[in-house]
Amino acid sequence: MENNQETQNALERRIDMTVPLADIEKEVDARLKRMARSVKLPGFRPGKVPLKIVAQNYGPQARSEAIGAAVEKCFGEKIREQNLRIAGSPQIEPRESGEDGALSFSAVFEVYPEVAVGDLSGQQVERPVLTVGDAEVDKTIGVLRKQRTTFAAVERAAQEGDRVVIDFTGRKDGEVFEGGAAEDFPFVIGAGSMLKDFETAVSGMSVGESKTFDMTFPEDYHAAHLAGQTVQFEVALKVVEAPNLPEIDADFARALGVADGDVEKLRDEVRNNLEREVKRRIQARVKEQVMDALIATHPIEVPKALVEAESRQLAENARRDMEMRGMNTKDLPVDPAWFKDQAERRVRLGLIMAELVKAKDLAAKPEQIKSLVEEMAQSYEDPSELVRWYYSNPERLSQAEAVVIEDNVVEWVVSEAQTTDKEVSFDELMGNAA
């Protein structure tokens, strides 16, 4: 078998292969003889079908298999000779034979790019710094109280924080517009579920009162037919309910899972949960900067085959997610092309990180994996149960290993780059900043 390698571009390769017909015929004959030992055909006992009849019925199949095996063997030998790392599956194409008594093929494929560890000393990484204190604990408990707000009817004008029930009708050019009318509609003034101008108009109204007012929708309003339009609303207020926040007491603590109702235990749990969440968010911000730095310092080409495979996987993940939410994906096909940019970034980072792990010895150590699993388990009522759950399944444990490897890469990059610490506010880090 003769073969020849040609380079098409940076990652694409082509190998031309010539397979002697004599070798093919020999393999076809061997395959047919093996088939004859067990093949079943009407009128013959198993294993007693004449070879000529076996060839008539199974000759094309045997030839196709023989050619495929010969090409695969030839291709594999050449790949091993050249020490090539194949990305994806080769595309095998027949070509005109230049020799008598031979079949010629071309294999077109991509190889993995060579990745050299880049210089990260010029990259900037800004690491957020935040210490969880009493103020952050108090603010979080305040949020938990608001989530458990109850409402009671009052006889006064509606104000910020009240829950009101209204009937309303909206008209544009004298006609009721789509979605512009409702009865017994509840909302909390100041919660942001209604436009600010609408809330302001309702604030100050009393039960039984009606009001007509004009309102202009924002230019970027999600309903295009109303964006920037001035309409007229008629509103009748039917109920005003004042908010009642629960006291921070034993009942409140028990409602949040502290069995004995100890408020200090509640504060400790909130503090511990906050510290874990703050750590997670800081790590996420640093990680994003690290990944951008890796891409900036490693301008490599990525195999199209890997990007296409990753795009298909992301599309399949999205499809499953939509189905779990009750959506019918048959009427809404998920196109892998939608995920091309995300897939290319993921593949590029995967190739770069794999080289870093190998070059800088950043593989996950057993004690690191154990530490991560135990840390994740701390937020569970029975941490040991989650630890057993992870260690009982190799696939789950490999997921934890991948996280550790990623953390090791991030830590190494941070040590190489120009890293500065920056104090951030609690609201900014938690995404609550105005």
UniProtKB/TrEMBL annotation:
It catalyses: [protein]-peptidylproline (omega=180) = [protein]-peptidylproline (omega=0). GO terms for biological process: 'de novo' cotranslational protein folding; cell division; protein transport; protein unfolding. It is found in: Cytoplasm. GO terms for molecular function: peptidyl-prolyl cis-trans isomerase activity; protein folding chaperone; ribosome binding. InterPro entries: PPIase_dom_sf (IPR046357), PPIase_FKBP_dom (IPR001179), Trig_fac (IPR005215), Trigger_fac_C (IPR008880), Trigger_fac_C_sf (IPR037041), Trigger_fac_ribosome-bd_bac (IPR008881), Trigger_fac_ribosome-bd_sf (IPR036611), Trigger_fact/SurA_dom_sf (IPR027304). Its EC number is 5.2.1.8. It holds the Pfam family Trigger_C. Keywords: Cell cycle, Cell division, Chaperone, Cytoplasm, Isomerase, Rotamase. Gene3D superfamilies: 3.10.50.40, Trigger factor ribosome-binding domain, Trigger factor, C-terminal domain. Signal peptide: none annotated. Transmembrane segments: none annotated. One of its GO terms (cellular component) is cytoplasm. It comes from the Bacteria. Residues 161-241 form the PPIase FKBP-type domain. It is an enzyme of class 5 (isomerase). The keyword Zinc-finger does not apply. Involved in protein export. Acts as a chaperone by maintaining the newly synthesized protein in an open conformation. Functions as a peptidyl-prolyl cis-trans isomerase. PANTHER family: TRIGGER FACTOR CHAPERONE AND PEPTIDYL-PROLYL CIS/TRANS ISOMERASE (PTHR30560), TRIGGER FACTOR-LIKE PROTEIN TIG, CHLOROPLASTIC (PTHR30560:SF3). Belongs to the FKBP-type PPIase family. Tig subfamily. Consists of 3 domains; the N-terminus binds the ribosome, the middle domain has PPIase activity, while the C-terminus has intrinsic chaperone activity on its own. This is Trigger factor.
